[in-house]
Write a structure and sequence with these properties.
alpha+beta; Nucleoside Triphosphate Pyrophosphohydrolase; six-stranded mixed beta sheet; three-stranded antiparallel beta sheet; 21% helix
């Protein structure tokens, strides 16, 4: 596998005896935010392919040019949830491949997730991309999350957080 660099959205060339194809890489960052009551912040957004489907997850988004992963994570939490938070630790990375609905292009995505503590703000101040934002007890959050990788990241965050 060849790659041009370790930052930004780059094309990777995968080679095998059977096929050659190019896949775009994307890097995103986000946070698992806990409030002072030990509740977890989750957001609900529409699926890209099927907007009628709703997915619960953590606030996250693409890393902007010249932005660090931590800066992007804090910005995305603020934009998508309406709350200010502080990073306390890195939880881990979620890696997956998805297909862009308009172009059919396959994208390899890496999302760095940070453990955060709530500082201020109101979930009613979330941006238009998000349909709902809420605080959940950890057990309820584990049941509500739509994707298994997010559930694993929350379990790891709970270990770090001490619950």
């Amino acid at each position: 596998m060849d790659s041009a660099s370790d930052s930004g959205s780059e094309g990777w060339r995968f080679e095998s005896s059977r096929a050659r194809f190019k896949m775009t890489r994307e890097f995103s960052a986000g946070g698992i935010v806990f409030n002072t009551s030990g509740q977890v912040l989750l957001i609900c957004a529409s699926a890209m392919k099927e907007p009628e489907k709703k997915h619960w997850g953590f606030p996250k988004g693409n890393v902007g040019e010249g932005e660090s992963m931590k800066e992007a994570a804090l910005r995305e939490v603020r934009e998508e949830s309406g709350v200010e938070a502080e990073i306390t630790a890195k939880v881990g990375d979620s890696k997956y491949v998805y297909t862009r609905p308009c172009s059919g292009e396959k994208v390899f995505k890496v999302v760095s997730i940070f453990l955060m503590k709530y500082l201020s703000g109101d979930t009613k101040d979330h941006d238009w991309e998000v349909e709902d934002v809420g605080w959940f007890e950890p057990e309820e959050a584990l049941k509500t999350l739509s994707f298994s990788q997010d559930k694993l990241l929350l379990k790891k965050a709970l270990e770090i957080y001490g619950q």
